[in-house]
Amino acid sequence: MTSTTKGISGSTVENPSITIDHVTPTDSGIYTCHAENIVGISSSRSINIKVKAETPVVQVGSRNYTTFYGISIMLKCTVHADPPVRHVFWKKSVNGFITTITPGTIGTQGSTPSNPSLTIVVPTNSDSGNYVCFAINDLGQRGSLSAELKVSGGT
Fold first, then answer.
1. CB of 46 closer than 8 Å to CB of 29
2. 45-95, pLDDT tens digit by residue?
3. Best CA proximity match to 86, nearest among 133, 140, 143, 131
4. Against a cut of 0.90, is the pTM above it?
5. How far apart are CA 102 and CA 106, in angstroms?
6. Could you read off the pLDDT of 81-107 as tens digits, one per residue?
7. Rounded to whole angstroms, how far apart are CA atoms 9 and 32?
8. How far is CA 129 from CA 24, 79, 140, in A?
9. What is the 3-state secondary structure of 103-150?
10. Where are the domains of the chain?
11. Residue 127: strand, helix, or coil
12. Which of 39, 130, 137, 145 is 20 to 30 Å from 81 at the Cα level?
């Protein structure tokens, strides 16, 4: 790599460090700095750079949840991602109708990068359905398998 390599800055006498714009896993490898002057050639110690990157891995704690009308329930969601997750949301599906649940949706807690699980504070029969947890990072979006919630009791 030199200062003329596209996407690279630095690597000059004035600025010997390099900066790689828009790093991807293909930039992983062993890097060594070489310098030459009238006395000779010298090289730095080599470093091994591994660029970790993937869309989030999203999992629900169970495929089936049951609660009673008015009894709080948490639908567990775990997310592993590098780069980190920026946004979490859930989708509920009932008879083909899909509702998106985001942080701040009335009657819920969670759905955040630091707490991706969804708590339905006072569930009613209308909360029964299939739920999928989604997470987004800089590389994309991925969803979990669906989890079915059944709310018993009530009218």
1. no
2. 999 998 877 899 999 999 999 999 999 999 999 999 988 999 999 999 999
3. 140
4. no
5. 9
6. 988 999 999 999 999 999 999 999 999
7. 16
8. 39, 22, 26
9. CCCCCEEECCCCCCCEEECCCCHHHCEEEEEEEEECCEEEECCCEEEE
10. 8-49, 54-152
11. helix
12. 130
Quick one: tokens of 93? 């599906």
Looking at this protein, which amino acid is placed at residue 69? Answer: Y
In 3D space, the residue among 154, 77, 78 whose CA is nearest the CA of residue 122 turns out to be 154
What does each C-alpha distance from 81 to 1, 32, 36, 56 come to in angstroms?
30, 29, 41, 4
Q: Which two tokens stand for residue 5?
A: 């390599």
Tokens representing 62 are: 């169970």
**Nearest to residue 133, comparing CAs of 108, 107, 106?**
108
**Whole-angstrom Cα distance, residue 34 to residue 25?**
23
Residue with tokens 């759905």: 111
The answer as to CATH 3.40.50.720 being correct for domain 54-152 is no
CB of 67 within 8 A of CB of 151? yes
Instruction: Extract the tokens encoding 141.
Output: 């979006």
